[in-house]
Structures are given as structure tokens and as C-alpha cells.
Please model this.
Amino acid sequence: MNKNYLFDGLLAGREDESRNLLRVPGGVDWSYAEIVGLSGQLANLLQSEGVEPGDRVAVQVAKSVQAIALYLATVRAGAVFLPLNTAYTRAEVDYFLDDAEPAVFVCDSAREQEFADIEARVFTLDGDAGGSLMPAVSALAGEFANVERGPRDLAAILYTSGTTGLSKGAMLSHDNLLSNALTLVDYWRFSADDVLLHALPIFHTHGLFVATNIIMICGGSMIFLPRFDVDALIEQMPRATSLMGVPTFYTRLLADARFDRELVAHMRLFVSGSAPMLAETHVQFEAVTGHRILERYGMTETNMNTSNPYDGERRAGSVGFALPGVEIKITDPENGAALAQGETGMIEIRGPNVFLGYWRKPEKTALELREDGFFISGDMGKIDDDGYLHILGREKDLVISGGYNIYPKQIETEIDALDGVVESAVFGIADADLGEAVAAAVVLVAGARLDQEQLLDALRPRLARFKLPRKLVLLEQLPRNAMGKVQKNLLRERYG
Ligand code: MCA
Ligand code: AMP
Model:
């Protein structure tokens, strides 16, 4: 059989095909053999639809076992997996479809009509496996001769916004994904005995690549929950060994009296990332459970960069050490010169985890990816005396809400385009549940009679709901400094 670098790497260590890969509470269990078989059927379908190596397969579907099989199928067919947040509106999805020009688009059947006019071949897949995709593969063979792919071939494109407000597709190679997952299996001591409680969405790096790739490599299994729900997590926790989550998972669990030492007795590891975790969450978690959360730092463009140690001190407020094979340096954001240990500057990253560049945007790639291979993260930080990395802020204008990245520029562009609006400024405010929440200050045209609700209503068809401002204030003018730049720090202080 042809060598397919990522697929072979993910499933090579599997000793017993009859083991369960996915357990779906209230549903059926799926063995490795069954999922691989379904991925073979799906790969046969993609090929019969004319999907060629390098073609994009865009997917905006609810979390399901079938969606995982579709990811594997796309890789096996030599194509490029392009997952999209289910919350994105038609207007948002249009941008990705225009930019990536996928050959196939899979969406929820409730939205089939909305996408009837697009160029790609459309299939539908619902959270309960309904829709046109599964019937289309039911008669197809599970055997599939994988398309040959090497380490530098593209495996996935994940869109991430920029400070310009326009999303850029981060091109991830087979080796980017495989090398990082192999490193993490080792670093976090994952084995076939692991049962990962999977409650993250599968359209981002965290839930798709970190969680799923690790488990496939180690031959473990996942309890596959459709979404984060405290009750479901508490019910399943005694059967699991590990959990990966954003800080909101941990603050919500801690707020529940049922979450205690006894409940987590079977657990080996709690990982947090995607957003800064408060040191107090770390401390409180240890007091309640006896476990220290292992915090790590990653990005869509780089997968995982650093991690607190498995053995050794997991330091609150720190994201730990560079992973094996990954280099981290702190530089002067003005000129890129390396700074001394202890000084605060731009975090730059180099290693096999670092992406190939932005899809069809070489000029953006050149701005962020240096010729020597270092990626300029946009995160500010320092390395302390013991070598631990601390993230101390962001140079990029970004709000991270419940682990979702929200780029103010995109929201400002949408608000500014509304009739009756002169300009706006979007900024993050502290939120006990989500870490940060989106706030907007809006200046209206003199005499315009728009209120907050009308503004939000006008934004709804344009923006995913998680991006809608939770707080919206109407101002006469925006605060500006002498250079004319909007002072978001003042807005944050005043309205945070
Ligand atoms: C849902 N809503 C949100 C968010 N999530 N609003 C702001 N920020 C959010 N994160 C809104 C919905 O639109 C809805 O609004 C209302 O909240 C309730 O929706 P529901 O689905 O019930 O929300 P939830 O269950 O409370 O979800 C919160 C959550 C979820 C569990 C924190 O957002 C989540 O699973 N986040 C994880 C994100 C993630 O995987 N990030 C990794 C990407 P309305 O009422 O108006 O309809 S970062 C990454 O991959 C990098 C590489 C890394 O380092 O890991
Ligand atoms: P994304 O664009 O979704 O890949 O998000 C990546 C960004 O999330 C990083 O550049 C950081 O700003 C942030 N991030 C990820 N993990 C952490 C963490 N453990 N602590 C603080 N910020 C984090």
C-alpha cells in the first residue's frame, strides 16, 4: 500500500483493531477497525467525486464519529481537510469557500438550501449521522488504497484571523501534525490505557489534532461528548483518565459541588490551553482535586509549542518549556533581536510543528514567518530563571473568549458598514466565565436613531453568535491618542 505519512503515522501503532476508539455515551461504541473502514468508504466517495490530491474538502458539521472518519478519509485521499466552526454564518463561510475553493463542502442538512448555489459538490452530515453523506457511502468498499503523501504535503488548512480582520488559511503539513502529536504522546505519557474525555469542538487544533491525533497514535480511546456540558462530564469522569480543555471547562467544573477528589480518582491528567488560565484556577483546582492542571501553549499555525512538565513542577501562570524539537526565543518586537532571559518581548517559535505558510497569501506569510524558520507569534512573554515561559500579553489585537479567538477588526468592519454608524472600537473585557468577553463602543451619525438591540440585530446575519458584543455602548466619540489611534486600553478601563 502507498505510504500516506500522516495516516500511517496515526494508526501504525494500533495493535488491536477491535479496540474501541470512540465511545459515544447513549450511543454505540466505534472500534478502530470500524472507523478506519468508514474512512475508507468516505475516501472512495471523495475519489469518485473527482477529489484530487491537494484538493480541499471543507467541512462545517456537528461533532460526530462520522466527522472524524471524514477527516481521516480526506487525509487518505491525499486531499486537504478544512474544518469550519459550526457557528459561522453564510457570510463568513462564503469568504472561506471563495478563498479555499474546495472541491467538496459538507454541511448540516438544515443549511443545505443556504448553500445550494455554491460551486463545490455539497453533501450533508448531521450530528446524528443523518444527511446525504452516509447514504452515499453505504454501498462503497471500506478498503481504500491510500494516496501517497510525504511529510511536507498539505494535510489541513485551518483559518485564523489576522489583525486586518481577514482570515488567513494556515497550511499544515502531514509532518506538522504527526510530529507534534508524537511528541505530545511521549511528553504527556499517553498510552493505550488512556480514555480521554473529549468535550471540545473538532473544528480547531485543540479538539481535532491535539486530542484526536494523540489518542489514535497511542491506541487509547475517547469518550466522545457532543459538547462541553458539566453534567455529562461529571457523569463520565469516573470512566476517564484524561481531559483536555480550555480554562472555562475548569472554572465551570470547579463551580460544581459534585466535582471533588473522589470523582477524579480515576483521572491521570488534566490539560489546559487555548487561552490564559488564571493562577488562582490552578491553585483552586489542586486544592479541590489534588491534581495540578498541566497548562500548555499552542497556536493554529504551530500546533503545540510549550508545555509544563509531566513530572516536575507545573507552574501556575506559566506555559512551561519548549517541547522537544521546538525552539522558543524572545525578541525585541521592533527589530527582532534576541533578548536576554528574563526580558519581556515577542515569542518566536521554530520547529517541525511550524506551518508551511498562509494559503495563497505569500505576503502575509513573509510578515510572520522569518526566512530562518522562526514564526512571529504575536504573543508577548518572558522566560523565567528556571526556563519556564510566561505569556504576558498579546501584541495582536485579539480577544480570546472561552477559547475562541475573536478579531476586533472583523467586528469593527461589520459595525462600521451599518447605516447610521460613523465608527466603532471592539475590545475585550474581563469575564469570569469566558476569560474575556467582547465589548464594542459605537459612534453614530448625528441624529441616527439606533439602539443597542437594533445594532445587534443588524450584525446577527453577518457574525457568528459567539462574536456578537456582549456589551455595546454608544459614544459621542472614541478616545484617541495624539497620533489619532483609538485608545482601547481606556475603553477597557472605563467599560470593563
Ligand atoms: C458559546 N458562546 C460563546 C462562546 N461559546 N460566546 C463567547 N465565547 C464563547 N467561547 C455563546 C453562543 O453563541 C450562545 O450565544 C451562548 O454562548 C451559549 O452557547 P453554548 O453553546 O451553550 O455555549 P457553551 O456550551 O457555554 O460554550 C462555551 C464553551 C465553548 C464550552 C467554552 O465555547 C467551547 O467549547 N470552547 C472551546 C473552544 C476551543 O476549542 N478552542 C480551541 C481553539 P447565544 O445565546 O447568543 O446563542 S484554539 C486552538 O486550537 C489553539 C491552537 C490552542 O492553543 O489550543
Ligand atoms: P489560535 O489562533 O486559535 O490558534 O489561538 C492561539 C492563541 O491562543 C495564541 O497565540 C495565544 O495568544 C493563545 N493561547 C493558546 N494557549 C494559551 C495559553 N496556555 N495561555 C495563554 N494564551 C494561550
